[in-house]
Design a protein that fits this description.
The N and C termini lie far apart (66 Å). α2 (54-69) packs antiparallel against α3 (78-98), α3 runs antiparallel to α8 and α6 (165-183) runs parallel beside α8 (218-239). The protein is mostly helical and 362 residues long. It has 13 helices and 2 strands, in the order ααααββααααααααα.
Length: 362
């Protein structure tokens, strides 16, 4: 049984990688023929016109790899997962081609999440002791799920500012969640995780190392990726409600937040800065952590590696302590929402260094 499951998971990853690599060259040809480029301007860090259609390959590779790899498995919610991702794909593609308002994007995001909650049954029903709360009502669960998923979708959308960053963070999250899903025998969601990992790996090669064949994932990709990661987070928390199961994790909200905290905290930070400056929280600027790091290390891959390695190091130091706390207190543990607040201060380090550097230059 485990060998069969492993074949399903590896097939999803391999298909995602292969389909993505096959699709990108024709996407690049069409983009060049139709002159579909993301042109550089004062708020963007790239200096050349680059096609922003990498999300097309991610979407198609992910969808096909998951459908083929999950064939024969009982996976009722898959139809609604694909439907919600399809909505993200179309609104993202429209934004990449003609630009649309943040309000319209938010409306489609909400519609997609509501579809998953009401028809797919993908929702939060328990907070695992967060703020002392365990089981929650359907209405409160609906609102919390809506907020959490939209927050994650927009976090990945906004963190997509330099080569390899959004895809690198998403691949790391997919690998961690996919490995846990496989060990805990939730194979369907392990297939989703590794299908995403393979699809992103193919895109990552062209995005980071493509040179003349470089392309961006665009809103098409970042919205699709954000939706998939949000689904993985919600299901991870739901599968860990029963603490007696093998490989169950007691501090599921803290652990899942830790895995995606970098884009979430960075998004909260920049939105706060914008609101305090009297601007729309969705207005573009160069206040993201990756923009600050680029002033210190003017290389996209270097900054991406710094951020991914930082998050992996933080997870390795944080997760064992969380698991130990749970093992000591068993089901009585309450998740402390302050456990990861210090990360906000760590993320401000590059900003403070840049500010001090600019002060010295003046």
């Amino acid at each position: 049984m485990l060998l069969t499951d492993l074949i399903h998971v590896l097939l999803a990853s391999a298909l995602g990688l292969l389909i993505s690599i096959i699709l990108i060259p024709p996407i690049l040809r069409v983009a060049r023929e139709k002159k579909l480029f993301d042109s550089p301007n004062e708020r963007k860090v790239h200096k050349l016109a680059i096609p922003p259609l990498g999300g097309i390959s991610i979407f198609i590779a992910f969808t096909l790899s998951v459908i083929f790899s999950s064939h024969g498995l009982n996976f009722y919610p898959l139809r609604y997962i694909v439907a919600s991702i399809l909505l993200m794909f179309f609104i993202g593609l429209k934004d990449d081609l003609i630009n649309i308002s943040a309000r319209k994007k938010f409306f489609v995001q909400a519609l997609s999440v509501i579809l998953l909650i009401t028809l797919g049954g993908i929702k939060l029903t328990n907070l695992h002791g967060l703020f002392g709360i365990h089981e929650i009502s359907q209405i409160f669960g609906f609102l919390v799920t809506l907020f959490v998923m939209i927050a994650i979708i927009n976090a990945f959308n906004l963190i997509d500012g330099i080569d390899g960053l959004a895809s690198g963070l998403a691949m790391m999250a997919a690998f961690i969640f996919g490995s846990w899903y496989y060990l805990a025998q939730h194979i369907q969601y392990s297939i989703i995780s590794f299908g995403l990992l393979g699809s992103l790996a193919g895109f990552f090669l062209f995005n980071v190392f493509g040179n003349k064949n470089k392309l961006f994932m665009g809103d098409t990709g970042s919205l699709v990726v954000g939706m998939i990661v949000a689904i993985l987070v919600v299901r991870f928390n739901e599968f860990n409600i029963q603490k007696t199961a093998l490989y169950s994790i007691g501090a599921a909200p803290s652990v899942s937040f830790a895995i995606v905290m970098l884009p979430l905290i960075d998004t909260l930070r920049v939105m706060t800065i914008r609101i305090l400056s009297g601007r729309s929280p969705f207005s573009p600027d160069k206040n993201h952590i990756h923009h600050r790091l680029l002033q210190l290390f003017p290389n996209h891959l270097t900054v991406t590696l710094i951020m991914v390695i930082f998050l992996v190091s933080l997870l390795l130091s944080f997760l064992p302590s969380q698991l130990l706390k749970w093992r000591q207190s068993q089901n009585n543990q309450e998740n402390n929402p302050l456990d990861l607040i210090f990360t906000k201060e760590i993320l401000n380090v590059p900003n403070n260094v840049v500010s001090n550097k600019n002060r010295k230059e003046i």
